[in-house]
Amino acid sequence: MKKTLKSIALMSGIAAFSASPALAQNQAPSPPQSALTIYGGYGGGGSFEQAGNGTIIINPNANANVDSNAVGAVSIDWRYDKSGNGQIFASYQRANLDLPTGVLLPNGANSFSLDITYLQLGGVRYIGGTAGQGAYYAGGIGATFFSPRNAGLSSEVRPSVSLAFGYEHEVNPTLSIRGELRGYATLFNSNSAIFCSGGCTIALQGDTFTQGQALIGLSLRF
Q1: Is this model's pTM higher than 0.70 or not?
Q2: What are phi and psi of 4, to 5 degrees?
Q3: Which residue of 19, 46, 67, 177 is 20 to 30 Å from 93, comparing CA positions?
Q4: Which of residues 87 and 27 earns the better pLDDT score?
């Protein structure tokens, strides 16, 4: 009887030892479900069409153009399904707004520094079918924040949308590199006036303000 019990115990120990690798394999950590990405790049485009009803005497239909400049951005992604992520995306650019010839601010300047910030809520869809790998397209809806760095000019907030196309290369399971082209369209009421403080410096004619960005990002998955 004792020999039988010893044999059973020995066989049970061998079986448990043999099953351990399979059990460990079944309990392997799940792949990362979220990612934080930091981007750097370049942004350009965007102009405001002048009208003749501001406090500054201006040339009707002349454009005030935003110059191209460096851009910084950050995004947070979370797994939505096998081939897609939800995403919060934000970008920042300090640009210069050049007014039309002959248009001067009260301080005599023909341009002023303008901070442009985008905040978008949307998603990413990977064309190859696996989230975090290969070509993708993305979109979002949110707001654009215009902040003039000039005394006497007010900040503005307007609704906006964005569309992006990019490629993500996986370095290892927790690190990847993204390259992305993203375009924005900020919506205005036709003939609405912006950057007003007592009077209006710029009066818009048109419905949209558009910009584009070329970005490179380092993505940390967790």
Answers
A1: yes
A2: -65, -45
A3: 177
A4: 87
